[in-house]
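If you are new to this repository, start here. Below is one unmodified record pulled from the training split, so you can see the exact layout before writing a loader.
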Amino acid sequence: MSQAAPEAITHRRILKTALPIVLANATVPILGAVDTGVVGQMGAAVPIGAVGIGAVILSGLYWIFGFLRMGTTGLTSQAYGAGRQGEVAAMLTRAVMIGLAAGLFMIAAQGMLFNAAFLVSPASGEVEAMARDYLGIRVWSAPAAIALYGLTGWLIALERTRAILIIQLWMNGLNIGLDLWFVLGLGWGVEGVAFATFLAEWSGFGLALWMCRDVFGQPAWRDWVRVFDRARLKEMASVNGDILLRSLMLQGIFISFLFLGADFGDVTLAANQVLMQFLQITAYALDGFAFAVEALVGQALGARNRLGLRRASMLSSMWGILCVAGLTVIFALTGGWIIDLMATSPDVRMDARVYLPWMVAAPLMGVAAWMLDGIFIGATQSRDMRNMMFVSLLVYIGAVFVLLPIWGNHGLWAALLISFVARGVTLAVRYPNLERLASAPQT
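And here is the target side for that same chain:
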């Protein structure tokens, strides 16, 4: 893990970091489709519902710990940029330990957590019983799944995104293969899907540790005085806490959007759900460039390289804008066809087409928010992220109150996109502070 001489920030370097993430993200929906497809071969609706609800519950619980990925990337990239290799190694140990501890907590508290989840779940008794069997198996890989957030963040910080692609391909490939064997070959049903994911997540965790093996050849990763340094732990807790609050507010916007959309009837609710997949596609595509800027900005700030920070922000954002411009054209030309792929109901298809123009506009209106999120994560200016998200939440609430009574579901979509713009604008206002930080002497 020796640090090479500073490398110039170029388009090639950004693409080298970003493209493996884009390819890794492309494998995620494939796995979901296979999970659904194999249980669908059982000839009943209950197994499909059980796997679907179980996966949603776990992904929601895991999402709470998403701060571990973002916080680890920012703090590690800054330590790397500053040449503090001992701290880089210690960050890996901290991230893995926090992930494993969080997973063990989930195992211990599974009864309480799953009971709370099913209180708000619309599942029938039969689906709930089968989903509990699924969750009872999968929860035992929670330590691996959450620790992988930290390992992923650490690898991104060092621009080792090819390793992330390999891990993702291995995990999803193994998961798919085991799905087919356990469910179709051995007839294990929903439990087979759960066991496949359980094994894939633990093996992915092991592979990720192997990808970081160079760290374990030096003593710093187990320098417990450094690992448990109070100042570093306090900094990590502060950054991660702010990111968690920011993410909760963002999730609140999306959840309220879905709830408010339900007031317009089942058809409009389904249409909104279909169109939300366009936002998911946009996020998957932009993740690569946002992750790249996290690493590069963090390294530049750690090295107190103001021009490097600016160049990383500008070049990565340029690629982000090119990406969303392409998505805008694709959504405009093929949006109707994409809707038809995701929905078979004529009414849902027709309603989704009515609101499709909002999805054509969404990538362009949201690109600043996505890219600036990456810039601020790399700079670990999580307090700004939290505060600007709060402002954006207030703007969203105000837009809903004004536009919903006038435009109905169109007003709801307008409010959501306005919140994207508000987040981008407010973070942009705070951006000059990052360059001032990069100009300050190291402490």
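Two things worth knowing about this chain: The chain has two domains: 1-228, 238-443. Residues 266-302 form the longest helix (37 residues).
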